[in-house]
Amino acid sequence: MQEKRWCRKHLLEVTGANSGMIPEPQNARISSVNLHSTLQWDAPRFPRGNLTYTVQSKSTYYPGDAFGTLRTGLRLPCCDLSSLSPYGSYVLQLRAEAGQLRSPWVTLTFKPMDDSEPVPFLPKNTACSAREARGCSVLHFMMLCWFLASFPRLSRGRD
Fold it and tell me: One of this protein's Pfam families, by short name (predicted)?
């Protein structure tokens, strides 16, 4: 009888039934503009109770480091990552929780300096038209707008 209990307990531990079966968060993604970074995800379908989320991080520059909790008890499916050093390289973990139940971890990598998009700078009172921007990359368009705003005499003759 003790052997049956041990086998059942071992089976529960192996299948994860002891910790509960919450599906993991889906579609985890990071949006980062000018180093203002946010981890977002879609909540898993879970009919029982309110879900909260935990996000952990660790630097890839120090392989021996353990994960540290970045945020816990999150009720919305997003987490501000702007407190991480912009020069770092990170592994992030995300999981859903409901009481004692836990989902598996979702893992992402993140390098703020590489993964962040710049905000295009357009000076005020710039008269750039769609005709002028046709065929331009964003950088070229920004340079054209800056040039036209900085040297109004040269741009006066345009139609």
Answer: Tissue_fac
Cβ atoms of residues 41 and 76 within 8 Å: no
What letter represents residue 45's amino acid?
R
Give the predicted TM-score (pTM) of the model.
0.63
Q: Residue 108 has what DSSP assignment?
A: E
Instruction: Go through the domains of the chain in sequence order and give each one's CATH number.
Output: 22-115 (2.60.40.10), 120-159 (no CATH)
Using CA atoms, how far residue 20 sits from 56, 69, 152, in Å, is: 20, 21, 67
pLDDT tens-place string over residues 72-82:
999 999 999 99
d(CA 35, CA 40): 15
pLDDT band at 46 (very low <50, low <70, confident <90, very high): confident
